[in-house]
Amino acid sequence: MIATSIKWTRHNLFGKPFDVALSLLVIPGALWLAYSILDWALTTARWDIIVQSLRVLMIGVFPADQAWRAWTASAIIAAILGAGLGCVFSFKPHHGLVLALVPLLMLIADHGDPQNALSAAGVVAATSLGWVLTSYLPLSRKAMPAAAFTGFIVVVAVMAPPGVGLWGGLLLSVLITLVTSVLSLPIGILLAFGRQSRLSSLRIICTWYIEVMRSVPLILVVYWIWILMPVLAPQWGLADVARGMIGFTIFYSAYVAEYVRSGLQAVPRAQTEAARSLGISEFDINRSIVLPQALRVVVAPLVGNVLDIFNSAPLVFIIGLTDFLRAGQMILANPQYGDRTFEVLSFLLVTYFLVGSMITYAARKLEDHMATSAR
């Protein structure tokens, strides 16, 4: 192993004179930067603000006495996500060990207070249960769509009593990401097929919609939906959260449509022509032959779209919602914590990085799974 490491280092870092100069410049700088960050994090930073403000960061201004609702909703969402992971790659013991670090870290951060740690352990257990279920019971995967739909309804029912407008924190950012990702995919697929339709009117409408959405900023779409929905449909009385999710879905559906359209164009035309010659209907051709191959091609862009949604969730501040980033700003607005800017922003940075890394890791496993299935 040592010989392999030396060979890799010589080949990749010191193979050419320019590589040698660049390595001697970058490596010491990177080591110094890493040492400085660790030294600040372990000796100077005061992380007690994160412990004291964890509830605000996780669930925003949601009532403290109703926090059990947020933990219940988190467990349901975690079970759905775990079941989704089980459809892609099997649960292994080291996955459980990594998940077990979450309640352990919360126990350490709360100085031995088991309340939040036990709640986090419940979320981890729900994730593991869903993951194991779909990993080792393939028949359970057929119930995934119905179970996920039911789960989201239960989440809304559990979280709604204190008031939908009180949803916030990281939980709100995750909900916006999940709802937008799930709804924008079928809408985007329909738009992609509509843009390639032989019906000129349908093709023009879909093309117009896609181009308009891709030509305006997301914040404008969210703001206009927030303003127009009470005017166009006052009888519905939609909450700000619902209007924000509608704006996100309308916007990102156009991008999904373009990703799917690029995948549709990658499917060899000979396959569709052969299917038509066999008398297969256009609907069956698109559903069974074209679409599976197209989605396999555009997995990476679609996952990138999910990351964009999560990173764009802070834009809901414009309609008065308290997302994860806005919760951090609320904490720093308190004069008592005015000197803790670096600690709060570092926690936000690490959390966004970890969530993005998990999504990327799952995407790579999904690509490997789909590539194996295609062989």
TrEMBL record:
CDD domains: TM_PBP2. One of its GO terms (cellular component) is ATP-binding cassette (ABC) transporter complex. The chain crosses the membrane at residues 20-38, 70-89, 96-112, 118-139, 146-164, 170-193, 205-229, 241-260, 297-321, 341-363. It is a multi-pass membrane protein. GO terms for molecular function: transmembrane transporter activity. InterPro entries: AA_ABC_transptr_permease_3TM, ArtM/GltK/GlnP/TcyL/YhdX-like, MetI-like, MetI-like_sf. The keyword Transmembrane applies. GO terms for biological process: amino acid transport. It is found in: Cell inner membrane; Cell membrane. It holds the Pfam family BPD_transp_1. Its main location: membrane. Residues 170-363 form the ABC transmembrane type-1 domain. Keywords: Cell membrane, Membrane, Transmembrane, Transmembrane helix, Transport. Belongs to the binding-protein-dependent transport system permease family. HisMQ subfamily. NCBIfam families: HEQRo_perm_3TM. This is Amino acid ABC transporter permease. It comes from Rhizobium phaseoli.
